[in-house]
Amino acid sequence: MPIIFAANIESAAILLDLFIMLAAAKLLAELFERLKQPDVVGEILAGVIIGPSLLGWVQPSQIINILAEFGVIFLLFTVGLETKPQAIFTVGRRALLVGLLGVVLPFVAGYFIAVAWGGSFAESMFIGAALVATSVGITARVLGALGLLDSQVARIILGAAVIDDVLGLIILSLVSAVSQGDISYIALAKTGGAAILFVAFVALVGSRIINGLAPFIERLHLGKPFFTLGLILCLGLSVASVYVGVAAIIGAFLAGMALAEATEDDHKMHRLTSGVTEFLVPFFLVSIGMQLDLQIFRDGSVVTFAILLTVLAVATKFFGGGLGAYGLPRREMAQIGIGMVPRGEVGIVVAQIGLGLGVIGQQFFAAVLFMAVATTLIAPPFIKMLFAEDKDRDGIADEPSLENVRDDFSRIG
Amino acid sequence: MPIIFAANIESAAILLDLFIMLAAAKLLAELFERLKQPDVVGEILAGVIIGPSLLGWVQPSQIINILAEFGVIFLLFTVGLETKPQAIFTVGRRALLVGLLGVVLPFVAGYFIAVAWGGSFAESMFIGAALVATSVGITARVLGALGLLDSQVARIILGAAVIDDVLGLIILSLVSAVSQGDISYIALAKTGGAAILFVAFVALVGSRIINGLAPFIERLHLGKPFFTLGLILCLGLSVASVYVGVAAIIGAFLAGMALAEATEDDHKMHRLTSGVTEFLVPFFLVSIGMQLDLQIFRDGSVVTFAILLTVLAVATKFFGGGLGAYGLPRREMAQIGIGMVPRGEVGIVVAQIGLGLGVIGQQFFAAVLFMAVATTLIAPPFIKMLFAEDKDRDGIADEPSLENVRDDFSRIG
Fold first, then answer.
1. Which domains does chain B have, with CATH numbers?
2. A263-273: pLDDT as tens digits
3. Pick among A1, A11, A34, A263 to test the B interface (most B CBs inside 10 A)
4. What are the tens digits of pLDDT across the range A68-97?
5. CB-CB neighbors (< 8 A) of B405 in chain A
6. Closest residue to B232, CB basis, from A22, A228, A273
7. Complex ipTM, two decimals?
8. Which of A149, B69, B96, B272 is the most exposed place for a label (fewest CB within 10 A)?
9. Helix-helix angle A136-146:A62-81, to 10 degrees
């Protein structure tokens, strides 16, 4: 037997977990690509399979959570890099309406179904809050794979999802405070106000500052000045977001958006960032799958509630988001509605906080997790279907990844 | 005061640590670049400054250790990608001699100075073992920044450092076993044999397998097949290495080497990998700096011993490595000798294991840390100086980074 050291074995166990996660994710992604299904779904399913519910090869751990969080942070940073502020502002009013209706309907529906199922006031508020926030990462990943991140509909979805996230996290703050008996309206107003001011400030001013500083940034002696600045800004604004009271991913998205115009033609910077994202995102997707505990669904009433909650989550977001786009062609209304459906990580975060505060029980928790994963699994094929024609109309080659699209540009440029 | 959640705050605290580490590293790297000093030194110094010894802004943590380990793993993977097996084999005999002499002299010297300073047999064996392994990452980083990774001298250094690492970790296995009273020679022989067989097998056969499979790999539906395969192979062989009994970084280096020929012209793959490396390496360098506890050096005898140990570490590696290169021009002997001087992470790992086993005391531990950091700080300016002429002779532009060199190739190609 070889002699191995504790220090090495501990980190080898972690490396082994990450190796299994990455290999399983890529294996199922390859399989799903061959079946013409979105690779995102394959990577989440990889998590269900290797996680505690089925094979139990990998257990959730703090390290995995942190890497998953990095994954979603860099994913949103990349999405931000594709989002020029001007493009969002042109769809601003529309995105605001889509976001608002896509928040109100799910929240109300979630609250009342939880009450009907015997939930307390606080518990039901949490279920409502968990239904609010769209997981823009999933939709962005699917649209990116179709090469459609640049379309007007995509911009409305991304803009609305940002508004959604901000509203969702403000609601979460309020619900948490209320559930803890803290109902100082001044404190609540301060939280909400600070969050809105922060987002508005970075979105409106950040890009101008970066554009103004660009000549100085280029003169830095660092080999990859914009990439380096991007990393620092991405981590820095993520931290700042949390201290202001919104999710870290919002800061990452804003950091990307602030750099979007200055780095538009900097393919090197995009490629370097893409390397980091491609490495980290699988940990995010796989760990979502790993969080689904299949055991608790032996209880039939949990299953019924979870399915009902999922149906409501899909319907209210689809119609809420779609209605917000009223006036656009019906097909685009449907695209926007379906694009808002995935809940993913934010719903899971809400459920975890509710569980941590002792406000929601294990079964509501399981149902919310089911809803978050199910909406994330259900949406991509429909997104792909509803957007398929646009892809062909644009004359873009089959199966273009974000990467390939950029390659095409470099070849042209 | 905004309402913040425990879950968010915890991960925000980690994000804040990483933000400070990255920002400090890049700030000092920029400063050192402007002073025409190696950025590596700047990044390590950043760790000393923000670490517990001085400002105390960031404390070492498990997360930071894991990211640092990832950093050095991907650094060695990148180095491996630049190392075509054929190129190493052509310098194989020379590298073996350099590696062997660079192991024997430091080990013997370390053992005897520790005995002279009152160390026990086991303690002194550990001090000897800590002096053995070259931190090839630092030298590779400096040579890469000079655009000289492709030179014959660089290949000898890298080859010898790999041999060094393997021998160093085998010695560590033996010393640990002896210090724990486990002196089954059969077990020791098995450990050593398994390690040598593993390295030889991957080095000799890995590249051929990958080259043979290349047409199939290219036909995968994954967007970035070689990059994805690289990530999986890098993590997989790192894990395998530890289970075989050698350091994870050796597996990462071998994974890169196996892919070196197949991905020679795949600039996309190199750029994507470089993104991951550039993100993670600062955590490795900063955390080395953070481990230096300046407090313990108030004890004058620790300082004296630490300085003596450092002088011995530099001298024995310089002359041992240099002697191994006997027959080459004297200038190249000096280049090879100085290239082997940095100890960095492996010395620190040895010291940590010795401390963990209760074999070496706090003061010997501090002295080894001092030696590891000091050799890492001392070597780069000398490496740069001794290699400066080669750079000019090759007609490569001033301050070319690994990245720029690749850019030059893409433009030519």
1. 19-412 (1.20.1530.20)
2. 877 788 888 88
3. A11
4. 888 888 888 887 887 777 766 778 888 888
5. none
6. A22
7. 0.76
8. B96
9. 50
